[in-house]
UniProtKB/TrEMBL annotation:
Organism: Lentzea flaviverrucosa
GO cellular component, one term: cytosol
A Gene Ontology molecular function term of the record: deaminase activity
Signal peptide: none
Top-level taxon of origin: Bacteria
Name under which the protein is recorded: Enamine deaminase RidA, house cleaning of reactive enamine intermediates, YjgF/YER057c/UK114 family
């Protein structure tokens, strides 16, 4: 599953369907021009999570279909310091839906300027599932 509104993947997929389970590939804060958005962890969270939701919605999924989210962070204290703002972005984009989550610290991500990468799993009800052709 590779939505046209996201950067064209090379060597990976934005999402892979297995039955009605969507495995969402890791999303950094890449914009349509293949550049990491500026502005720090809050804006990078907004872009990365928005990219995840774009892939989810391309197959008929909604935020409430997310069952698991893993967030990789290059600076955990920075993420924690902005937790309230990040929570506001989450609620703006997904509402009051909170799947199982993990936050994992790492030394670097694929793009050197990336501060965050988000991946997840969603189970989409058959009546909303849109299979790619």
């Amino acid at each position: 599953m590779n939505p046209a509104s996201l950067p064209a993947p090379r060597g990976y997929s934005h999402g892979t369907l297995a039955g009605n389970t969507l495995h969402l590939g890791g999303q950094t804060a890449l914009d349509a021009d293949m550049k990491i958005v500026p502005g720090g962890i809050v804006e990078q969270f907004r872009q990365a999570f928005g990219n995840v939701l774009t892939t989810l919605r391309a197959v008929g999924g909604e935020p409430e279909d997310l069952v698991s989210i893993t967030i990789y962070l290059t600076d955990i204290p920075d993420y924690q310091a902005h937790g309230k703002e990040i929570g506001e972005v989450w609620r703006e984009l997904a509402g009051p839906v909170y799947p199982a989550m993990a936050g994992i610290g790492c030394t670097a991500l694929w793009q050197p300027e990336a501060l965050i990468e988000i991946l997840g799993v969603a189970v989409i009800p058959e009546d909303r599932l849109v299979r790619p052709s």
